[in-house]
Amino acid sequence: MGIQALIPSGLAALHNFIRQYDPEEIHEYDDVDDIEIDLQLGQQESTGELGTGRVTAAETRRANVRRDQIASEMWDQYQDYLEHHVASASE
After folding, report:
1. CB proximity list for 44: less than 8 A, separation 6 or greater
2. Alpha-carbon distance 22 to 15, whole Å?
3. pTM of the full structure
4. In whole angstroms, what is the distance from residue 9 CA to residue 14 CA?
5. What is the DSSP code string of the chain?
6. Mean per-residue pLDDT over the chain, rounded
7. Cα–Cα distance for residue pair 29/46, rounded to 1 Å
8. Residue 45 to residues 27, 35, 59, 89: CA-CA distances in angstroms?
9. What is the mean pLDDT of residues 67-84?
10. CA–CA dist 70, 64 (Å, integer)
């Protein structure tokens, strides 16, 4: 587990290194068919483009609203799970 915990920070460091020393590398794969990649990832459609520049206030608000919707849906699902599974386990 100790090694696994280091993986995210190692990947972040690698990402930062690549962005600093070869920022155009990501464009080397522009000719790859997006649909093929999406199918390999199990997605039906493209998830968007890589962003450039600063995040706008409107984008931040949209992201916050979406995050809150997801959290609310997760909470509702959890409460439903508790209601149905915990109640049936105690019977």
Report:
1. 38
2. 10
3. 0.41
4. 9
5. -HHHHHHHHHHHHHHHHHHHH-TTGGGGGTTS-HHHHHHHTT-SS-------SPPPHHHHHHHHHHHHHHHHHHHHHHHHHIIIIIHHHH-
6. 78
7. 15
8. 20, 7, 21, 40
9. 94
10. 10
Cβ atoms within 10 Å of 34's Cβ, excluding its own: 13
Alpha-carbon dihedral angle through residues 68, 69, 73, 76, given to the nearest 10 degrees: 60
Q: Which residue has the tokens 């995050």?
A: 67
| Cβ atoms of 15 and 25 closer than 8 Å | no
Say whether pLDDT at 2 is over 70: yes
Quote the tokens at residue 44: 């039906």
Nearest to 36, CA basis, from 27, 48, 44: 44
Structural contact between residues 50 and 26, judged by C-beta atoms closer than 8 angstroms: yes
